[in-house]
Design goal:
Bound molecules: 1,3,4-trihydroxy-5-OXO-cyclohexanecarboxylic acid
Number of strands: 5
Order of helices and strands: EHHEHEHEEH
CATH topology: Rossmann fold
Strand order of the largest sheet: 2-1-3-4-5
Strand content: 15-25%
Shape: globular
CATH class: Alpha Beta
Largest sheet: 5 strands, parallel
Helix content: 25-40%
CATH superfamily: Dehydroquinase, class II
Structural class: alpha/beta
Number of domains: 1
């Protein structure tokens, strides 16, 4: 069994389905987790799917993924726009890193246009809603296999 794909979610994503559904959609994080876990499993990969409202906890999980993960998919939510700590943690990761945002951050307020995470990501998927996570799983597996 290959190492799991870490799928890390930042602050307020626990409220998916309830929070600003016109922007983030109606699907809950639990539903999203089930779907992407099944998708990864069908390709032979387990997932470590997590959410935290705390920056340091996300840093700890990125460091864990560095040792124990096949790839990292990260939606750092608002921390994407502020966190040099998360950028530094991701820069220390050798496995593939895919950044995901449900909304198209480039079509929103100017303060969302820059993401620190992007500087450490192999690829970035924005604006496709929960589908972005499915595509990120496919991309993460493809990149992980090509680096085996
Ligand atoms: C988000 C976009 C961020 O700007 C925002 O702070 C979020 C969610 C997205 O998935 O679209 O919380 O990362």
């Amino acid at each position: 069994m290959p190492k799991p794909i870490y799928i890390l979610n930042g602050p307020n994503l626990n409220l998916l389905g309830e929070r600003e559904p016109h922007i983030y959609g109606a699907e809950t994080l639990q539903d999203l987790e089930k779907r992407v876990a099944a998708r990864a499993k069908a390709a032979g990969y387990a997932t470590a799917f997590r959410q935290s409202n705390r920056e340091g906890e996300l840093v700890d999980w990125i460091q864990e993924a560095r040792e124990k993960g096949a790839a990292v998919i990260i939606n750092a939510a608002a921390y994407s726009h502020t966190s040099i700590a998360i950028l530094d943690a991701l820069k220390a990761v050798d496995v593939p890193v895919i950044e995901v945002h449900l909304s198209n951050i480039h079509r929103r307020e100017a303060f969302r246009h820059h993401s620190y995470v992007s500087a450490a990501a192999d690829g970035v998927i924005v604006g496709l809603g929960p589908l972005g996570y499915d595509l990120a799983v496919d991309a993460a597996i493809s990149l992980a296999k090509s680096r085996e």
